[in-house]
Every structure is written in C-alpha cells, then in structure tokens.
Amino acid sequence: MKRLLLALVALACCGAAPVVAQDYPSRPVKIVVPFAAGGPADVYARYIAQRLQESLGQPFVVDDRPGGGSVVGTDIVAKSAPDGYTLLLMSNTHTVNESLMPGKPFQLMRDFVAIAPINYSDLVLVVNPSVPASTLQELIALAKAQPGKLNYASSGPGTPYHMAGELFKSMAGVDIVHVPYKESSGARTGVLGGQVEMMFDAVTVMSEHVKAGKVKAIATSGTARSAVMPNVPTLAEAGVPGYDAVIWLGLMAPKGTPPAIVAKLNAEVSRIVARPEVKADWAKQGAAAMVMTPDAFTQSLNDDVVKWERIVKISGARADK
C-alpha cells in the first residue's frame, strides 16, 4: 500500500506541470517595468502586454516602478511569488548592474529565471544644436580640447545610455562628465533644452527629435547603420573602431516559477515577435525582434554579465557618478 501511495504521488507530480501550464493564466498578470513611463522598456512592455492579453485571454497589466537604477522595481519582482503572475521587463541595465551594483538586494541569475528576449535597437549619440560639432571627429576634438567641460546625460547608473557613454569615453579617450537623471525622459529633456550637451538615446525614441532638428545626430551605436537613420554613420565607421552598444529588452520571472509556465510564456512571446507585421512595425521604429529559447536566453544573459563586468572594470564606471 505504501508503495502504491508513493507511486500515485509521483504520478500526480509528473502530471502537475502540464495542468499548471494549461490553466495559466487564470487571473491578471502583472509586468513590472523598473523604468519610467515613456521610455523603450515601458513602450514595448505595453506592446507585448496587449498581445499576450489577446492570445492568453487574461489582462497583462504594466506596472512602472522606476528608481535606484532599476533596483526598486526589480526587487519587487524578486520578492514576489514564483507563480507566473508577476513578471519583470528587464534590459541590459540588469546585466550591467551585476558588476556596477554588487550590493543590491538580489542577484539576477540567482533570483530570476529567463523567459524570453523581446527586441533590441541601436542608440544614437546626439548633441544639442548649440554644441559646435556636427561630426564624431569634431565632437572628439572638442572634448579633448575641453577635458571635463562637456556633459552627457543618462537615465541613471547602469542604464544602456550610461554605459554607452562610458564605453565612448574609454574607447575615444575623452573626458566627458556623466549627468544621471532619474528617468530617460528627464535626460532627453535636459539635452533638448541645452542643460546638458549630449546623450546616447534609443533610436526608437530620439529619431523624431532628430528629424525635427531639435538635436544633431552624430553617430549610431550598432555594427551597421540604422535603417531609420541611414545617413548617420556608426561610431565604428566614424572614428571609434570596434564600438558596439545597443539596448535590448526581455522578460524574466522570480526563481522557482514553474518551467511549464516559463515555456508557455516563451512560446507566446516568440510567436508574437516573429509575426511579419510586428517585425515590420518595429523596423520602422529602429527595433529588431529577438527570438530565443529560455535556455538560450539564459546563456545570453550570462554572457552579457561577463561582457559588462569587463567593461565596467576597464572604464572605471561607478554607480554613484
């Protein structure tokens, strides 16, 4: 009898995962965005949430929780129940913060599981029209002639905008000063208003300001020219060989989330971003879809943590400046 009971328990456990996945979601799902409203993370979280809601039949609610360079919102998810009903919209800010902020209350690869990547986009280095430089070489020359005088804005320590600036400083050999804002909209406003000379910003957000002549586009950050800014050279071709820095987004969940739920979410997100109309829509904005299995995304995250640990060390980047 004891053996029979044990066998029945084991059988029940083996069958539990498919049932969990089949019933999921049975109530609203929250996607926590640890960045301010209006930035790429918020925009694409809402894009994905709407389509997950359509395909899975339950509300997917975006909850913006900015603060602490993404730490505030991320910690909320880390402490949430691992049941698939609280998800994290993350970016490469998180892989940078593993080395930039070692004292934070969580560890990315210890306390979270990877679900799926979403997309990536280039950044564009822009300057206020008042800056007497229109090319990368002119900007580098200006910065070298006035060390410590030019400032660049970001949405906070560890963000792609910050690290793109630090990478530029290191590779171009210039001394420019980081001015962190609490969110990307504030940094953007600072550059548009001339309070700060320059910033790296997502092409998906800044391209309209470039077209309107509110800022000058100096160079883009990817390995090839951006489709939405084909006349703007990359940093690599304009004078900083080997430069490559993008912003990418993905979904994670608290450690312990059932693998069947992770697999279901991965399949749905992958199906959404692979749609021809989604790819075409994002291409117009300067973003490209990313599709990976949970295991492949996990490996990609681990690789990115190692990459940025090296760059943080070389650049001397700090969370407090």
Offer a few descriptive terms.
D-Maltodextrin-Binding Protein, domain 2; 2 domains; single chain; alpha/beta; ten-stranded mixed sheet; 321 residues
Protein architecture, described:
The chain has 321 residues and is an alpha/beta fold. The chain has 2 domains: 27-120 and 247-315, Bordetella uptake gene, domain 1 (D-Maltodextrin-Binding Protein, domain 2, 3-Layer(aba) Sandwich); 122-238, 3-Layer(aba) Sandwich (D-Maltodextrin-Binding Protein, domain 2). It contains 13 helices and 10 strands. Strands 1, 2, 3, 4, 5, 6, 7, 8, 9 and 10 form a 10-stranded mixed sheet that branches. α2 links the parallel β1 and β2 (60-64). α1 runs parallel beside α11 (259-273), α2 (40-56) crosses α11 and α4 (92-100) packs across α13. The radius of gyration is 21 Å and the shape is globular.
